[in-house]
Specification:
The chain is an alpha/beta fold and 291 residues long. The protein has a single domain, classed as TIM Barrel. It has nine helices and ten strands. An eight-stranded parallel beta barrel has the order 1-2-3-4-5-6-7-10, surrounded by four helices. A two-stranded antiparallel sheet has the order 8-9. The longest helix has 21 residues, at 82-102. The chain is globular. The structure holds zinc ion and manganese (II) ion (2 copies). One manganese (II) ion binds next to helix 6.
Amino acid sequence: MAAKVGCHVSISGSIDMAVDNAVQRGCTAFQMFTRNPRGWHAKELDGQVTAAFRTKLKESGIDGDAICAHMPYLPNLASPDDAGFSKSAATLTDEVRRCGLLGIPYVVTHLGSHLGSGEEAGMDRLVKGLNGAAGAAKNDVMILLENTAGQKNSVGSDLGQLGDILDRCRPAGRFGVCLDTCHAFAAGYDMRTKKSVKETFGLFEEHVGMDRLKIVHLNDAKGELGSKRDRHYHIGLGEIGEEGMAAAARTADRNGIPLILETPIDEKRDDVGNIAKARELLAARGAGGAR
Ligand code: ZN
Ligand code: MN
Ligand code: MN
């Protein structure tokens, strides 16, 4: 089976443009927003837009299981503030509905910040928001919990905690995980060598389970191991480096997991360049003796 590799693509203009942008970049997997990610308001999806999106996706030949939506930036599902929490939970419910209308199987969400109220309180809120959204939006869209870099007060950077949260999510079949390699590395999980990647995925299997893994955000890291900094970098050029990126990409690909890049665009490289690099690392299977 060909590797599913792609990047986050823009919906600027209209939502169905995501597919055009993905095709243009040679993506065989992609991530998108279903709305402006910087505001609370979302325009209702009309039937024309959802039909255009579905038609383009079908024509693209991209596997419908290799795409996901990402939640907007403002919601905080672990918020101790009642109004903030309600708004955030409502946004997640709405996103699950929108994905259902668009035929997108997964919505990736960050786990939020408890803002000083403590991990237990934050997790209680989060689980309530997650389960509420899965219950309210009656479709089969799966909510993917994304591990975090471990910034102050953030929930879900520890794989044990991520597993605990997932265990409390109901119905279980509506939940999975999106593993971000940059976030894991920033949270202290080494990924620089074949051996350390194997160990980190071993911990993932122990605490979460590979069967729960649906998407990998393949990002190199600008900050060092355990920096707790959420700074993505070009594939192979960051602190994780080529050997680690190759091992992580291969591990995911062997399990049929789509690899989605959220790497910067600058004078060094653009999305096409980073996708090419990821494919090159996947193709050089003999090189590091991977497998
Ligand atoms: Zn994310
Ligand atoms: Mn990510
Ligand atoms: Mn990030």
